[in-house]
Amino acid sequence: MENITLSEIAGLGVGALLFCATVAAPKVDSFISSSQRRNLGMCRRCGDLRMIACSNCKGTGLVRNGGPFGFSLLDDLSQSLGDGQNPISSKPCIKCKSKGCFSCTECSNKRVAN
Ligand SMILES: [Zn+2]
Ligand SMILES: [Zn+2]
Q1: Distance 84 CA to ligand 1 centre (A)
Q2: Mean pLDDT, residues 37-42
Q3: Among all ligands shown, which has an atom nearest to the Cα of 68?
Q4: Ligand with minimal distance to 37 CA
Q5: Range with top average pLDDT, 4-18, 52-66, 80-94
Q6: Distance in Å, CA 87 to ligand 2 centroid
C-alpha cells in the first residue's frame, strides 16, 4: 500500500471526521441543532416540525389527576415505588386537547407572512 493518493488520505480524514461527529453527536446535538437551525433558516422553536410538545402534559396528551403539580418529583417517586394503593389516573390534557402538541405559532406566523 505505497500508492496512497492524496484523495485517499482526504477520504480517510473525512471518514474519521464523520466518525468523531457521530460519536460526539448526542453530547453537542442540542448546541449544534440550535445554531444549525438558525443557519438553515429553520424555525428555532420547533426546527420546522411545525409542532411543539405540550408543556402541560409533556407531549403525552394526558394529564395526571391532581392538578398542575401532578408531575412533581414526589409523585414520580411514589409511582416508581409502586405502592399500588393509588393508581395514577389521568385525564385528557385540556391545554392541547389531548393531542400532546401544538402547531408552532412562529411557523404559522411565518406562513401567513409569506
Ligand atoms: Zn397537553
Ligand atoms: Zn416553528
Answers
A1: 26
A2: 72
A3: 1
A4: 2
A5: 52-66
A6: 37
Ligand 1 midpoint to CA 94 (Å)? 6
pLDDT tens figures, 74-113? 555 555 555 544 556 788 999 999 999 989 888 877 655 4
Q: What are phi and psi of 14, to 5 degrees?
A: -65, -40
Written as one letter, the residue type at 39 is N
- Centre of ligand 1 to C-alpha 12, Å, is 48
Which set of grid coordinates corresponds to residue 33? Answer: 441543532
Q: Which three cell numbers stand for residue 4?
A: 496512497
Quick one: what percent of the chain has pLDDT higher than 90? 11
Residue 58: partners with Cβ closer than 8 Å, 6 or more residues away:
71
Other CB atoms within 10 Å distance of the CB of residue 58: 13
